[in-house]
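hey m, so remember when u said the tokens were messed up on ur end? i reran from scratch. heres the input so u can diff it against urs
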Amino acid sequence: MRTNDRWWMGMVAGSCAAVFGGCAAGAPVTPQQQELHERRLLAPFLAPREVGCGELLVELTGNFHDNVGQPAVDQQRHRVTRETGDGYVDTVWTNLAGAMEGAFVVTIGQPPELTERGLVPGIATRFRVVNQLRLRIYQDRRALTLNAVAGGSFVLVKEASTKPSEKARFEVRDGVLRQEP
């Protein structure tokens, strides 16, 4: 599937999720309410932060597709599979050797912006995933979703200009950042 096709599918899925997500919650949602909710869910990722981990699960509804990057794939080092579940599709990237040289890099935050100076990256949290990255895109009727859970054999978090610190888990769920020491 071409990148342009994926973008359009994400836009359609995002529109459907936004419309049906509001219905699932009961009362209709105005565009202003939806925008505020999207901002609240995205806010924890809008920090100059790096997270290194063994495994990462990212869950989202289609309206956040532009905010979640996808990693580069080396056919010699990586395997990519798709799994379908009840109301979602998972894309799973696996680093076959589990070596740091083959780690996946993915960002969650503001998408890059094309300016007169070229492509300028947006503010985002950058994840370096050594073993497995799972991107779960919900396609059923549900509220807006943007969650990330970093775990596995190690989790290192580096905030802005501080030294990396070891954590048991790094999680953003429903717009709230939690880090287990």
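this time it looks ok to me. Residues 3-180 form one domain. if urs says something different then somethings off w ur setup not the seq
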